[in-house]
Design a protein that fits this description.
The complex is a heterodimer of chains A (343) and B (387). Chain A is of the alpha/beta class and 343 residues long. Helix content of chain A is 35%, strand content 19%. The longest helix of chain A is centred in the N-terminal third of the chain and has 15 residues. Chain A starts with a strand and ends with a helix. Chain B is 43% helix and 8% strand. In chain B, helix 7 links the parallel strand 2 and strand 3. The chains are: A alpha/beta (343), B alpha/beta (387). At the A-B interface, helix 3, helix 4, helix 5, helix 9 and helix 10 of A face helix 6, helix 7 and helix 13 of B.
Chain lengths: 343, 387
């Protein structure tokens, strides 16, 4: 029987199921034991699996990541929590220099099957250093898989896949979605890594997004349909690495217009990468330039101003409007009418 | 709380052999203190094994230095002068033990029995790590400083969890003790009671920065105490003392006593690497002083004095070392063969679609058809048809 399940519960159940099924899985980090994590994602795990399987560590993120590297060398599968996105920066060297590179350095002989869980992004009124969208750093690092689920079902399924993966996975959990719910019967298996999901079908414009902004994209699409009669397709990437060029390109070729929506600051970020990929693949199908909607190019603001900073439904709708809906593109020089294709 | 006296290092570095190879003089009190810590003068047989390892190790080091001058190696950080620290700790390890080395510990890896060509792969530039770290139980040589201190803590915890009686030896330099990961490694090892022995080879310089500008601690060994880690300091140019102290440290870790920090006072006789000019930051007088402390000369003099080492045996091992160097030279003179396509094999267990595209591009480039398979994304076929 399906029952209302929060994103946080789905993650907790995924950890439970992994701990039950695989003795080599270990969960550790700061406050993940008795407290169950500051977001309660590890709630009850120490109680049910013992301190040997789910344990608190000293307060040191590089130590947590490096300790996990050592455990991987002995055949364990650590799932570590970084508590908050920006708290992970002290571990950056361990993650980019060792976690990401150890397989490569050792010609595949020493894989790093670990999951690094980052509660990330904003919208929860957190203070400084608690709301960064740090995925750009990790997607720029070869050797890491980077995952950001937006639904409770994906949260469960992708975390199970991440733990089972023989490669390191940076698992970005949008904090603003922890309390979102879905009717769900766990365990559930959704599409695997590398497959994007079309969350809403549409024919006029594609919004490509992931993680915390997926609900905003869907809301904007709903409003656009109701108020403007625009048919908006929403593609949820689910995994940023590997990236699903196929689903994204197929959608944009169908709609002819693309908006890339990411909560992170826009400059040189994941959104820029997506826009470039879409342009490379769909140039002849595009009736308008690919536009980006992002956070502002500044440090994450104090809580009272975060809604000015964050991309929201209005900014998304305004951007869709900038795609010059009623103007036929002048494509005479291209020798063909791309609209015929995109229609 | 631990009794701090069980953590404190000896007030002076442990030493059994004087620089001239005679037994170091010590008071009855000191002798009793060393014995209480489990430090006993190794047998002549064990010391002969260390001596042989040092003769071969030093010849390897000289050969690697020569290969650098010939352009066969991109770079080589010599460990000449640190021979006792490189050889004795390795010979005292058990088969199931793990080592987490740095880039300067090539001689140590050769002492562990790893193929010298595979050890030099990193420095020749044909791959980052040439040996199999799992099969050899020796992690890839670490280039960032001190990051391996935390890996060692985790690996030790993993060994313990698996019910192995293996321990971990983590090699580290003096400069690296200033890095955050050194502290996090010691702290994690202590908190999780990991069977790790940290050996700091204090060779007095972090490239050009002398120890006095690195730390205000009376000795690096004292850094362990703050973490509740048993600590010791040893004359790193005395092979007998290094062997005795490391054996006791291994025993402590292996029997569930938790981590140990050992500081070996030694000296890097060569420059940091061939790219460094050591005359800019140290004096000939200082180098001369340390030349007089040579660990190989010291142990050899002791063993000759004991009557267990003679000219014939010395010649025999000298020849063995020459043969070792000749074989290495010959193998290093062959051009390394690296398949460029292997680049794509080791990024992920399964390449991403993006890497698969790039792999095809490189394959085409190699085949001489550059451009033919560039990963220009497929355009809409319908579009292609109308162009």
């Amino acid at each position: 029987m399906s029952k209302p399940t929060t994103y946080a519960q789905a993650l907790n159940t995924a950890l439970r199921d992994a701990l039950t099924q695989d003795e080599s899985v270990l969960v550790f980090g700061e406050d993940v034991g008795a407290l169950g994590g500051v977001f309660r994602i590890t709630d009850g795990l120490t109680r049910d699996f013992g301190e040997d399987r789910c344990f608190d560590t000293p307060l040191a993120e590089a130590g947590i990541a490096g300790f996990a590297v050592g455990l991987c060398t002995q055949g364990f599968r650590p799932v570590i929590e970084m508590q908050f996105d920006a708290f992970g920066y002290p571990a950056f060297e361990q993650v980019v220099s060792h976690v990401a590179k150890m397989r490569n350095r050792t010609q595949g002989r020493m894989p790093m099957p670990m999951v690094i869980r980052y509660p990330y992004a904003g919208g929860i009124g957190g203070v400084e250093h608690h709301c960064d969208s740090s995925e750009g750093y990790y997607v720029h690092t070869p050797g890491l898989h980077v995952v950001s689920p937006s639904t409770p079902a994906d949260a469960y399924s992708l975390l199970r896949e991440a733990i089972a993966s023989d490669d390191p996975v940076v698992f970005m959990e949008p904090k603003s979605l922890y309390w979102s719910k879905a009717e769900l019967d766990l365990p559930v298996t959704t599409e695997p890594f590398g497959k994007a999901a079309v969350r809403r079908e549409g024919s006029d414009v594609t919004i490509i997004t992931y993680g915390p902004q997926v609900p905003n994209a869907l809301k904007a699409a709903e409003i656009a349909a109701a108020e403007e009669d625009w048919s908006v397709e929403v593609v949820d990437l689910r995994t940023l690495v590997p990236f699903d060029d196929e689903t994204v390109a197929a959608s944009v070729r169908r709609t002819g217009r693309a908006v890339v929506l990411a909560e992170a600051q826009g400059f040189a970020g994941m959104g820029a990468e997506i826009a470039a990929r879409v342009t490379e693949r769909c140039f002849h199908s595009l009736a308008a330039p690919v536009l980006r909607v992002s956070g502002l190019d500044m440090p994450y603001p104090p809580p009272i101003l975060e809604h000015t900073y964050l991309p929201g439904v209005d900014r998304i709708l305004d951007t869709i409007a900038r795609l010059q809906w009623d103007d036929e593109p002048d494509l005479t020089h291209a020798g063909s009418d791309t609209r015929a294709v995109s229609a | 709380m631990s009794d701090i006296s069980t953590l404190l290092p000896c007030p002076e570095p442990v030493r059994f052999l004087a620089p001239d190879g005679t037994r170091a003089e010590m008071s009855t009190e000191t002798a009793a203190a060393l014995e209480a810590r489990g430090y006993t003068m190794p047998s002549d047989e064990d010391l002969l094994a260390v001596w042989r390892g040092m003769v071969i190790g030093r010849r390897f080091d000289a050969q690697a230095t020569a290969l650098t001058k010939q352009g066969r190696l991109a770079v080589y950080p010599s460990s000449r002068g640190q021979d006792a620290c490189q050889v004795a700790p390795m010979l005292a390890l058990a088969e199931q033990d793990w080592v987490f080395p740095t880039y300067r510990d090539s001689m140590a890896l050769v002492s562990r029995g790893i193929d010298p060509v595979e050890v030099l792969t990193l420095l020749r530039g044909d791959w980052h790590c040439g040996y199999d770290p799992v099969a050899t139980r020796t992690a890839a040589q670490c280039t960032p400083l001190a990051t391996q201190a935390v890996h060692a803590a985790g690996a030790g915890d993993g060994l313990r969890r698996k019910g192995s009686d293996g321990i971990v030896l983590c090699l580290i330099g003096d400069g690296a003790t200033s890095e955050g990961d050194f502290h996090e490694g010691l702290n994690f090892a202590a908190v999780f009671h990991s069977p790790v022995v940290y050996l700091v080879q204090n060779n007095k310089y972090a490239i050009s920065v002398p120890l006095a500008k690195q730390t205000k601690a009376p000795a690096l060994a004292y850094k362990g105490i703050g973490y509740g880690v048993r600590s010791e300091q040893v004359d790193g140019n005395d092979p007998a003392a290094v062997l005795a102290v490391m054996r006791a440290a291994y025993q402590h870790a292996r029997s569930g006593g938790g981590p140990v920090l050992v500081e070996a006072h030694t000296y890097r006789m060569e420059a940091h690497t061939n790219a460094d000019d050591a005359t800019r930051y140290r004096t000939p007088a200082e180098v001369d002083e340390w030349t007089g402390q040579d660990p190989l000369v010291r142990l050899q003099a002791y063993l000759v004095g004991q009557g267990v080492l003679d000219d014939a045996r010395m010649e025999e091992v000298r020849q063995e070392a020459e043969d070792f160097a000749a074989a290495l030279r010959e193998r290093m003179n062959a051009e390394p063969q690296v398949d460029p396509m292997s680049l794509f094999e080791h990024v992920y267990a399964e390449p991403t679609p993006q890497l698969r595209e790039q792999r095809e591009m490189v394959r085409a480039e190699i085949a001489g058809a550059a451009g033919a398979a560039h990963p220009v994304p497929a355009q809409d076929p319908k579009q292609e048809a109308t162009r």
